[in-house]
Amino acid sequence: MCYLIGHAIEQALTRRGFIAGSAISLFAPMISSAVAGGSVDTRIQLAQLSGDVGSSRTRLILLGTSGGPTWYPNSDQSGISSVVAVGDAYYIVDCGEGAGKRLQQAISPASSRFMDDRVRALFLTHLHSDHTVDYANLLFIGLFVGLDRRSTPFKVFGPGRRGQMAPVFSLPGSSAPTVPIINPENPTPGIKDMTGYLYQAFATDLNDRMRDNGKPNLEAVVEVHDIDIPAIAGFKSPNETPSPPMEPFKIFEDDRVRVSATLVDHAPVWPAFAYRFDTDDGSIVFSGDTGRCENLIKLAKGADVLVHEVIVTSAIYRAFPTPRSVANEGLVQHLLNAHTQVEEVGAVAEAAGVKKLVLSHIVPGNATREQLLPAGKGFSGELVIGRDLMQIGIGQTAASPQKG
To answer: Are residues 62 and 94 in contact, defined by beta-carbon separation less than 8 angstroms?
Structure first.
């Protein structure tokens, strides 16, 4: 009964008119909504396949668009991961299942050495496994596909230690069960800790590669940074105030991009970040995983593109009918409160005044086009339903001179 979003393409071809947009997929067309009047359903059309994105200097590349566990029936979408490309410089955001392979397909399909100096940095929004599970692949397989020949380190930015254990979910009026603690000496590691633990877990392999294959020490070619959060008025603790009102703060800048971050509401996971990439051509914002959050709206003000997570509310209720176990009720409450429901996404984009809303981290990963249409309600800009390997051009063409 369910069918893939991509299966709507054939039907969309019969609709009248095309959008003269700057988006194009590498391997599958994009579904987009125009800004003309009428219902969202009647405004969905097939985006025109144009050469614009190929000549755009700054591009958004969606590597994987599925959120949560990616092994959904009838879905071939990879785990959440995106790239901001500025000329020949690439910046990865999140590293879900299949991200490494998708990265190769997107930037160097004919090359086996794509993790060279062109891939400058990785930014992780938070440390849930669906956003990090391919991180080990990027490092360890990366030693054979370009990390071993870099002249500058591959930079990684992500959350630091949480510093406080999350509460155990329990129903009102009942006591919380006793839950074991993994790694009690450091139960809430950040990305720097996590990377060190990966090196320890794969020490047999890494030591062998250095001795038998002449590979470099990963610690010398990968530079990992816990993001330092500035002092925030009103912040008490991760459990009490996970996303207090704050100003965006800069975490990285080079000759191509300036990257800013803010805390968003994905409790009990903390810290959870949204990122904004500003280039000479325009701006791209990534929501990360979050419920509606004023910090995100402030970060995204006036952006060209907002890449926003989306969860299909009705699918969650169908997957977890009542009565629910305590465990399932905890999961349902997290899904509905720490994510943005499809009916709410358009209002967030409208409040931020963005030009284009791109849906990614789609839950469930096999959601249909019809299930995702409500995301456009209340939004006056252009809606794009994301698909793996879709590319969207921003601003000037590659032929334009690079400032600075």
So the answer is: no
DSSP state of 67: -
Q: For residues 305 and 100, give the distance between their C-alpha atoms in angstroms, rounded to a whole number.
A: 24
CA 61 to chain CA mean position, Å: 11
Q: Where are the beta strands (DSSP E) in 134-293?
A: 154-158, 222-226, 249-253, 258-263, 273-278, 283-286
Given a cut of 60, whether residue 134 has pLDDT beyond it is: yes
- Rounded Cα distance, 198 and 223, in Å: 14
- Identify whether the C-beta of residue 126 lies closer than 8 Å to the C-beta of residue 161: no
In 3-state terms, what secondary structure has residue 261?
strand
Scored b (16 or more CB within 10 A) or e, 338-372 reads: bbbbbebbbbbbbbbebbbbbbbbbbbbbbbbebb
Per the listing, tokens 């252009």 go with 382
Q: What is the pTM of this model?
A: 0.87
User: Tens digit of pLDDT for each residue in 34-50?
Assistant: 333 333 332 232 232 23
Inter-helix orientation angle 191-201/203-212, to 10°: 70
Q: What is the DSSP string of 295-364?
A: HHHHHTTT-SEEEEEEE-HHHHHHHSPSS--HHHHHHHHHHHHSS-BHHHHHHHHHHHT-SEEEEEEEES
Reported as a pLDDT band with limits 50, 70 and 90, residue 54 is low
Bond from prior residue into 364 cis (ω within 30 degrees of 0): yes
Q: In angstroms, rounded to a whole number, what is the distance separating the alpha carbons of residues 67 and 243?
A: 22
